[in-house]
Fold:
Amino acid sequence: MLVVAFAVSASIAANAATPKRMRAEKSDSLQILFVGNSYTFYNNLPRIVSKLAATQGIKLAPSRALKGGETLKGHLNHEFLPKILAEGGFNYVVIQDASYQPSYSTADVRKDVYPYAHRVDSLAKAGSPGVQTIYYMTWGHKDGILHHKTDYPLNHTYAGMQERLKTSYLEMAYENGGICAPVGMAWQKVINERPDIELYSLKDRYHPSKEGSYLAACTILSTILGHPFESDYFAGLPESTARYLQKIAGETVKDNLSLLGIKTSAL
Structure:
């Protein structure tokens, strides 16, 4: 049993570290690029967003610049992201930094996060005039920051880490003229209202479960739409759970349009 458990764990770890970079074929679909790491490729978040969008009559073609544990700085140091952004043709670019990085002190975030978020945003807009950049606000780890931990005390609990991430992502969106997908805010609402719904992967308590990825996808699509939606695509979840997560995602966006930088319905 220990050998099997180790093999499964090693397989998951290897998957999380595998680069996932690809450009979608050009078509009549709206082109969306996901820039991030395992928080985006776990449970194939881009596919869930696209499947949900299809139920709203919207065709999305997702491209991916994803690598486990990668930061925005790391993506910019790899040839793929600058190249694909320069090629352009994107309607949306979803930007997600490493799960821990924007939860650090203001000084550290100003030095290690904001400049690279601005660079990705600038390259996206240079290559794709009119593109909408979307900052994917992630969630606090269930037990606060445990890996990449520093002496900074405000991210040592879930609540403290969530508040730091919320501030950092809202500021990234504000400073760059983008909008923010409030996944972390929706996540916190579910935790408070429905603790029976497990949003975290139980293997590590910070990656998303299938429910967590579905909530993230619903929140990202509600952000693109600028309003709540209903869908019959449940991604294998019980209908009641999926519809509740759709509701929370939509309400979180609708109740915070100004905070998130969403001026009008995009579609």
In short: The mean pLDDT is 92.
